[in-house]
Every structure is written in structure tokens, then in C-alpha cells.
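Subject: Protein entry, chain in single-letter code together with its C-alpha cells

Area: Proteins and the way their chains fold up in space.

Attached in line: The record itself begins immediately under this heading.
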Amino acid sequence: MKIFAMALMIAPTICLAASPSKALSTRAVAAVKLKLTDPDSAKFEGLRLGNSPANNVVCGLVNAKNQLGGYAGRKVFYYFDAKPPIVVVQGDASMEHTIPVMCPGFATP
């Protein structure tokens, strides 16, 4: 019974993840594409607001082609809308540890 009650409390939080504005999503997608080997091949999914009181962080998944021309697999990313913007994609060794903080609950594939 306790597990069921916990699931009821957590489910709305997971299901109601807020979507970023169209302008913020556009900036995030453009910034992430700049970090990719083949930006035109990028496929984005699951865009949502990340952990920020100012609602200026976008989290999501991106899959793009690598240097060999094959899709590398989905990677978690976040975009922090600041001046200058910060973009972290799963695999960025120096900043990857910040993904769980900025995108809590976003499972890395």
C-alpha cells in the first residue's frame, strides 16, 4: 500500500514535465547542433524544462551521425540559456556529471 501511495505522488511529477517555450527550444536545438559532427542528421526527442528556478534549462535526447556516418545512439543533453549559453551532451567528460543535477530523472540511455 505504501508503494502504491508513493507511486501516486510521484506519477504526476513525471507525467507533467513542463515543455519549454518554442523560442527556448529553438535556441537549445541550434546550440546542441553546433556540438555535433553531423548537425543535419540530428533527431531530438523528449524536450522538457530542466532543474532551474528561472525555467532557462532545456533537457532532452539527441541522436546524430558520428564520423563513420552511423547514428551514435541517443544521448542526454541540456542547454542552459545564459550569456554565453552552456551546452552539455552526454559524453562530455568534463561536464557529464552535471546532467543528473540539471535533468533529474532523465535516464541516460
User: Anything to note?
Assistant: The radius of gyration is 15 Å. The beta strands are 43-49, 57-63, 75-80, 86-89. Residues 1-15 have pLDDT under 50 and may be disordered.
